[in-house]
Amino acid sequence: MGEFLDLIDDVHYGLRKLFKKNKSASKKPTGTNVKRWAIELGVALVVGILTGCITYGLLNKEDKSLKVKEENAVAIKESQTPATGDAEAPAKEEPQEDYSDVVITVVDPSGYAPSIADWSADEINAAISERKSYLDNNKYWPAVSKYWESKGVTDVACYCQYLFDTDNKVYSASDFSGLSPEVIHIAKNEIYARHGYSFKDQDIYNYFMGQVWYSPSIMPKDFTEDIFTETEVKNLDMLNSIDKM
After folding, report:
1. What's the average model confidence in pLDDT over 139-160?
2. 51-76 residue pLDDT tens
3. Which residues, other chains included, contact 197 with Cβ-Cβ below 8 Å and sequence gap of 6+?
4. Contact between 196 and 218 (Cβ < 8 Å)
5. Full DSSP string of 3-72
6. How far, in Å, CA of 30 to CA of 43, rounded?
7. Cα–Cα dist 215/133, whole Å
8. Cα-Cα end-to-end distance for the chain
């Protein structure tokens, strides 16, 4: 803009210099001078009008540019402002699960097998941790574990107590109705395991090794069934009659 105004001043100055030179050189009559001044005045007016128009246009353009920028700034600010309804909306609460119908039975340690009845909790947990690998991929453990769950026993008691009280109570076949063949087979062999029988069958051996009360101490060739009580013999005969494995 400044350069343009300087150019106009230079043109104006050149025209005035030119008319002044012609005036002194030609010494024309007064009427001619009047005519020159009129032309010079017209040129000056035209230059002034053009200058005003150009200046107004430039200033008006800058004002529009600023206005557009301000409108954009306001639009951006409004888009970043969260809606009032969203800000005041309370956070959704996660639905709470209802466990009122879940029953968990925690077995009293006094019900543990006699061989571990006086163990501390630390000793029991250590033994379970040490032996737990025996139950990995064991074909009997899933069925027995499911049986314990049906009884509501979900704590360490399933590794610490006998499946059935076969040394004190005489059972009937109906007591085992609906139980899986795996549970019945383990219940029968548990009578042997209580007396330290060391099983040749690897799956049965591993299952009982997963029970912290089990301590294999008698090899099959040295074991005698004379060690069984009358109650155990009756239960063993009944279990043999329903064992399908």
Report:
1. 95
2. 666 666 655 555 554 454 555 544 44
3. 216, 218, 220, 223
4. yes
5. HHHHHHHHHHHHHHHHHHHHHHHH---HHHHHHHHHHHHHHHHHHHHHHHHHHHHHHHHHHHHHHHHHHH
6. 20
7. 16
8. 107
Buried b (16+ CB within 10 A) or exposed e, 73-93: eeeeeeeeeeeeeeeeeeeee
Kindly state the helix (H) or strand (E) to which residue 126 belongs, with its residue range: helix 121-131
C-alpha–C-alpha distance, residues 200 and 223, integer Å: 13
Please answer whether residues 161 and 206 qualify as being in contact, where contact means their C-beta atoms are separated by less than 8 angstroms: no
The residue type of 187 is: A
Q: Structure tokens of 54?
A: 């150009």
201-to-6, 139, 174, 233, 239 alpha-carbon distances in Å? 113, 12, 28, 22, 18
Place of tokens 């062999």: 189
Segment 194-211 shows an average pLDDT of 97
Find the mean pLDDT for residues 24-50.
Answer: 63
Question: Could you tell me the pLDDT band of residue 102, with boundaries at 50, 70 and 90?
Answer: very low
List the one residue out of 69, 154, 155, 161 whose CA is nearest residue 113: 161
Q: Which residues contact 110 (CB under 8 A, 6 or more apart)?
A: 117
3-state secondary structure of 109: helix
pLDDT band at 103 (very low <50, low <70, confident <90, very high): very low
Q: Check: CB of residue 195 under 8 Å from CB of residue 189.
A: no
SS3 state at 209: helix
